[in-house]
Amino acid sequence: MDKLKSSQKIIRSSFTKAYNVFQDEMQRPSPNLTKLQTQFALIRDKAIELTELSHKIRDGMISANEQEETLTKELEIADEYATKYHQAKIELNDIMEVKATPTPSSQPAIVTYQESIRTLKLPKIELRKFGGEIKDWLSFWSTFQKIHEDATFSREDKFHYLLQSTVKDSRAFEVVNSFPPTADNYEKAIDSLKSRFGKKDLLIEFYVRELLKLVLNKNKNISLISIYDKLETHLRALESLGVTTDMCAAMLFPLVESSLPEEILRTWQRAITTRDVSATNITAKDRLMHLMAFLGKEVESEERIHMAKTCFETTNDPAKNKKKTKSDKDQDIVTAAGLLTMKETSPPKCLFCEESHDSLHCKKARSMSMEQRVTLIKNKHGFNEVSTSLANINLNTKVFLPLLKVRLRGPTGTINVRAIIDTGSHKSYILSRGAEEVGYKIIGEQTMIHLLFGGARTKPKNHQAYRIYLEHLDGSYKCDFIAFQQQIICLNTPKSNCKLWKDTLENNKVQLSDNREGDEFITILIGADVAGRLFTGKILQVDDNVTAIETKLGWTLMGKNLIDNTKEDTTLMIISMMAENGEVSNLWKLDTLGIIDPIESETKEVRQEVKTLFRNTTKINDEGRYEVLLPWKVNHPVLQDNREIAEKRLKSSTKKLRQENLYEDYEAVFNDWLSEGIIERVPESEVGDRGYYLPHRHVVKEKSTTRIRPGFDASAKTKTSPSLNQCLETGPNLLELIPAILHRFRERKIGVTADIAKAFLQISITQSDRDVLRFLWWDTQGNIITYRHRRVVFGVSSSPFLLAGTIELHIERSSNTTNSTTREAICKKLAKSFYVDDCITSVDSHADLQTFQKEATSLMNEAK
């Protein structure tokens, strides 16, 4: 046994070596077919030898009564080598099929094929496990039967799969585990399982009893959909067992019919008469088929009704959705007869004098006091003869909001605006048009989520920040604070009458800042961050409900004014549908119901968060360059050290460079980068630290200014380690910008295109992220040396986003710091014209072109 295991170990090592050489050749851009066939022949020979040795070792282990765990481990290792063999065989066949594709006769005989082979990694198929429940037997056996009938599997392997397909410590597991795992015992274990759990008569009894359970549980308010699903499941199971004859259908039909709710059963009986299902020539099997078809249509109708009722609901509160209502069978049936109540008419009779007139017009009652009238009615037990009347008192409330009229001062002018004080708001806000009208400049940006009354949350939204300057209308007080841009603060405030307290206010020398006579919109909301320093502490109680409060910007009113009115109203029933946002785009979004994946919207939110993080972490380093962080995914997989793969790819690329006489040109690029500080050599003391290595190859463009350049592969990965690109966010989708940019290119008379030279190499990478951007090259003695990138790398999935974000940030900062209107206009144009490092726009004249060229070049030169 020891000699066999030693031999097996040597052959496995030889197999692994041949397999690794085969896979290395497969990863090359143009694999050598002869080398692949040679290596596969070695793999096949070693696999045959391993199979023979495995059978001998397995038989010896069974004879020596080895533990089951040891035997199972040996089988799993043997399966791994067999899997590698079959994988290599499939890969070689795919390559040979591509190579064997015939060429047209009109083309030369020697053709280079470059086929993109796409490998789809499908999810692993897991065997259904059986625990000894009779209801699970059919589904288990339908999947395991394929293994059982496959002649290519040995019975030992089948026994192993059978043991894996049972739930541990279950009845089925105990039955299978009671047999030693040998080839002869496999059939015995299968027969034992079938006799215990797979007997046909036992299964038929089980499913018939399940139908009887539905009959017994029909009064438990089970939904029709649930009943239909269970009926179909049980009938399909019986059909697979052969219970489909007319005689059996005659037994099944009444069971199915009796399991239905009373309302459905009545509908079915009415449907029988219209479909002639009750005819004498219809068999029981056909009747059962018609009944199931009828139930299927009823279930479909229920689904449609449910969809129609719920698709436009405005609440997502599960507690409200679970609110139980009265069932259909318990609800009263509404009929037209219920609208009319008959009562025999009779002449009126007075309660006080018993004559034939209304009590309301009784002269005798008019001479009585209220107490006498009440006592008389009580003595005559006339409470049921008293008529009722209803008076509707409407309280019309006017609520005064703390409004102020203030002066808003800016670089380009001064305007009088209306402001509101809201101590429930954390921040202060200003309308966008108000900020633009006085010429305020953006000083920052913040992403906020607004929490509204009732717990509603808005989506994250960017708000631009301004420093605004307010003053009292008479100029007696001035202040400045940060306010955030908002498109709408609130709807126009209604007119209100303050003349009721005119005398009171004048007597106390109070002059309101806002007379509230117009319906002017509110331009500024003063939040709790500012309101505290505006209150002076002086208040005037105008009446019980209205209070005047003094601020440093003027007096304002708060409270409500109640006016009692007695009036008649016509009551109407109004049905309205609330819409959170009345946006026109929602109309055509309905056309995509069920098409847009919810993941898409989640992805957009994640990308927006990445952009916000980028803007908050980007800085200008000591060299005067923008320095960025790599945008790592949250909970990204751990990057493994892939130096071995990078070395193999380096040797392959070097060989090709020497064959094409491009080695010196390629090396010169790295030397230039090293002298310019684009890359740096990793110190020998840090080479042993973990890092990620970017494999690279040469890219040749004959007509380009840079004929040869390195192309780095950040998608290089192994079966156990992810690639760098899999760990990084790609940021917002830049492709969405292309249509708008192309439209602007055609907007004016002269089209303009430009790009930034070596744009990616202008942006620095922070020190902590450089070790995942390592790569290998040779020194003059032919030894491998380690470099790492100091700048953004073309080939990393996040690089386009980092470049575009840096350009956008640079333009925005330049716009905020310039005092030139021309430069500011150029900044706005550039902000809308870049796609990564390409600028595409248009101008009206040659003069505009020269101005744009000069200002744009100057602006971009401000950053390295």
Automatic annotation (TrEMBL):
<protein>
    <recommendedName>
        <fullName>Peptidase aspartic putative domain-containing protein</fullName>
    </recommendedName>
</protein>
<dbReference type="GO" id="GO:0071897">
    <property type="term" value="P:DNA biosynthetic process"/>
</dbReference>
<dbReference type="InterPro" id="IPR043128">
    <property type="entry name" value="Rev_trsase/Diguanyl_cyclase"/>
</dbReference>
<dbReference type="Pfam" id="PF03564">
    <property type="entry name" value="DUF1759"/>
</dbReference>
<dbReference type="InterPro" id="IPR043502">
    <property type="entry name" value="DNA/RNA_pol_sf"/>
</dbReference>
<dbReference type="InterPro" id="IPR005312">
    <property type="entry name" value="DUF1759"/>
</dbReference>
